[in-house]
Amino acid sequence: MTKTIRIAAALLLRPDGDTLLVRKRGTTAFMQPGGKVEPQETAEAALVRELLEELGLATETKDLIFLGRFQAPAANEPDHLVVADVFRLHVSDAGIAATAEIEEIRWVSPQNPGNIIMAPLTEHHILPYH
Question: pTM for the full model?
Answer without folding.
Answer: 0.93
